[in-house]
Amino acid sequence: METSIGVDLGGTGLKLGECSRDGRLLRHRELPSGRLSQAEAMEKIEAALADYLAAPVGDPAAVGIGMIGRVDPARGVWLEIDPAHSEPIPAAARIKARFGLPCRIDNDVRTAARAEARFGAGRGYAHWIYINVGTGLAAATISGGRVIVGGHCNAGEVGHTASGIAFRAPCVCGRPDCAEPVASGMGLDLSARLLAAEYPATRLVIPENGRVRAEAIFALAEDDALCRTLTDHAAAALANLIMNLTRFSDPERIVLGGGLLTDDFLLDRIRARLHAHTMRYVTGGVVRTELDPRTAGILGACVHAEEGR
Question: Which residues, 6 or more positions from 272, have their beta carbon under 8 angstroms from its beta carbon?
Fold first, then answer.
């Protein structure tokens, strides 16, 4: 059976799996990644592939990789893991040279959107937006059936647009009101730490090591003032982001995915803040992913691999 290998390098881990051509995930693995340099991350990807390809389920014909950071999919070059650490790596050519398999790469969020387009909530739509609300906050915009990459392969960094919520600490980009510092996994952790002193009665546990988990915040949001504030800020920022993107690209549908959208808790609060007039042409609605957020990136990487064959 001919298969594709998909690799998903996100903000907190490395996932790898093997997919059939009809989108069945045959087997997958997850490895912690921690904070790695770009060179170290590339070596970890190669080591994981070497280990997996020693005993695949089927007959792998291609490799696809979704990578955090800025990626040039046309040239197969991983440009940078983050803006402060740019070390261009010809990742696609390097994988092909080592393993003898064609390889295609892209940014991890655009890669997940490919899975949604083929197998999920993006099916049947030529103009739509996929927003990934996970460790960070980013999007893929699809216009006329094509994923927008941008002139510098930097399209989709929507976490660095104004949230409508003034915040006491500037974003890493220098702006005072970006969406990511209040509406992402990292942002909720940051917000909780900065606001906790104002809510001495909170029952939210803020660990010295590791992140405050979004699920812990959401579980207390009904009767804990700090968690309610954090949740309200996140929902308002995401609603404002959705309405801004709607005005910009006129999508037929908006799909939300990522680790913070595993159920309808946050989605219901986002929808309650959307203005009907602004959203009147989003005829496909604002919906949650139909795919498992934990493996959508692997599936999208396999789709991308197939597209190049």
Answer: 235
| Alpha helical stretches, state H, the chain | 38-53, 91-99, 108-119, 185-195, 214-219, 225-249, 265-271, 276-279, 296-307
* Helices 225-249 and 185-195, packing angle to 10 deg: 140
Q: What is the pTM of this model?
A: 0.94
Domains parsed from the chain with CATH numbers = 2-117+294-307 (3.30.420.40), 124-288 (3.30.420.40)
Q: Whose structure tokens read 């040279």?
A: 97
The identity of residue 179, as a single letter, is A
Where do we find the tokens 């790898």? Answer: 16
> How far is Cα 2 from Cα 295, in angstroms, rounded to an integer?
20
- Token pair listed for 292: 């498992």
- Tens of pLDDT, residues 83-127: 877 889 999 999 999 999 999 999 999 999 999 999 999 999 999
